[in-house]
Amino acid sequence: MPRIRVIVRAVALACMGSAACTALLAQEVSQLEKVEVTGSRIKRLDAETASAIQVITRDDIVKSGAKNVADVLRDVPAGNAGGFNTDGQINDVFGGSAVSLRGLGVGSTLVLINGRRVAPFGFGSASFVDTSAIPVEAVERIETLLDGASAIYGADAIGGVINITLRKGFEGLVGSVSAGLSSRSDGASKNASLTYGKGSLGKDGYNFFLTATHRDQDAVGASERERTQDANFTRYNLADRRSSYYRNVYSLTATSGYYGGTFIAPLTGLDTPCTPATNAGTLTGRCVNDNTKNVDVVAGWKSDSLYGAGVMALPGGFELFGDLSISRSRYNTHSFSYGTDSYGYYTYDLRDVLGQYGNYPGGQVSYLILPIGHPQNPKTNAEVAVRYLFNDVPSTMATDSLNQRYTVGVRGELAGWDVESALMLSRSSTDSQLRGFLRDSVLLSDVLDANGKVRSNFILGNAAANNQDLMARLYPALASNGTSSTNSMDVRASRELWQLPGGKLGVAVGAEYRREKVESVPDTLLSSGAISLWSVQPAIGSRNVKAVYAEAVAPIVKTLELSLAARWDDNSDFGKSTTPKVGIKWQVLPQLVLRGTYAEGFRAPTLPEQHMGTQTYYVKVRDPKLCPTYDANNANCDRYVVGIYGASGDLRAETSKSRSLGFVFQPTRNSSLAVDTYDIKRKGEVASMSTSYLLDHEADFPTKVVRGAASGQIDTIYLTATNLAETHVRGLDAEGRLQFSMPDELGRVMLSATYNRLAKYEQANAPGGAMVDTVGYYLKPKERMRFGVGWSRGPWQANVNWNYTGSYAQKSDSTVACGYDQQATPRPDYCRIGAWMTADAYLAYSGFKDLELGLSVRNIADRAAPFDADMIAYLRGYNSAYHNQLGRYYQLNAKYKFW
Question: Is the pTM of the predicted complex or chain greater than 0.85?
Answer without folding.
Answer: no
